[in-house]
């Protein structure tokens, strides 16, 4: 990363990752202090470490939701912060708040649903939660809790809102446009590419209602990321540019909307052609039917 606005440690960042969801913490104890020392020994300067994962679990002592099973009194963020301060390894708190399991107090109250009203299930077991529901506030509360307690050097957001037809989304879109949410068939036929990669260049979408939908989807995500950044900065004003948001692996520069994929008429045509023959596998909530 070469932009001079970024802090030196980020511009020449050598990041190592510990993902909570890659471990079965009921069976093994992950020694975060040792991992931190190993990162330093390998000349790494950043530890991207799970604060909260897509299953609704936290890897620190949270008052808001369940802790990952088996962690007991172990607190990953505290260990990484303390050992990192000793060895010069910055802490990036990783948040993926795509969903929850039935051990979460909000389970079933914030579901993302498909257009038939069935909860969207990811990885066959996890219910996706919708950021236009009360889950949005839950997300902001978790971020605030982490920043207040651990003051990490930055945050890494790794999820994006899926297309959703819940009551909150239906109401929000109707308030904005006076229209009903479009369905998957209609979106695919118009060449709107995937359920959660709305690109820039929405003017290439001819239909005003579908164009408004694409813009609104992107806006929902941008607003949430800005709100998360606002929460983090309100607690750590010195953060300024230490925020990284990612959507499915693509870096999103916080103050610029969109994924950097430019939509034009030729691309819309191409997407429309291929989605017409592949709607069931690309846009429907396949897993929920299994
Ligand atoms: Zn929704």
Give structural notes:
Helix content is 37%, strand content 13%. The protein is of the alpha/beta class and 290 residues long. The protein has a single domain (8-289), classed as Alpha-Beta Barrel (TIM Barrel), CATH 3.20.20. The strands form two sheets. A six-stranded mixed β-sheet has the order 1-2-3-7-8-9. Strands 4-6-5 form a three-stranded antiparallel β-sheet, with no helix packed on it. Helix 2 runs parallel beside helix 3 (76-87) and helix 4 packs parallel to helix 7. The longest helix is centred in the C-terminal third of the chain and has 28 residues, at 208-235. 40% of the residues are buried. Bound molecules: zinc ion. The site of zinc ion has 8 residues, from helix 5.
Could you give a quick summary of the protein structure above?
The chain is of the alpha/beta class and 290 residues long. It is 37% helix and 13% strand.
Series of secondary-structure elements, N-terminal to C-terminal: HEHEHEEEEHEHHHEEH
**Derived structural class:** alpha/beta
Terminal Cα span = 42 Å
| SS element count, helices | 8
C-alpha geometry? globular
CATH secondary-structure class? Alpha Beta
Descriptive keywords:
disordered C terminus, 9 strands, alpha/beta, 290 residues, three-stranded antiparallel sheet, TIM Barrel
Ordered list of secondary-structure elements with their pairings:
Elements: H1 8-11, E1 15-18, H2 32-41, E2 46-52, H3 76-87, E3 90-95, E4 99-100, E5 121-122, E6 126-128, H4 135-150, E7 154-158, H5 167-177, H6 184-189, H7 208-235, E8 243-247, E9 250-252, H8 265-283
Parallel strand pairs: 1-2, 2-3, 3-7, 7-8
Antiparallel strand pairs: 4-6, 5-6, 8-9
Helix pairs in contact: 2-3, 4-7
Bound molecules: zinc ion.
The site of zinc ion has 8 residues, from helix 5.
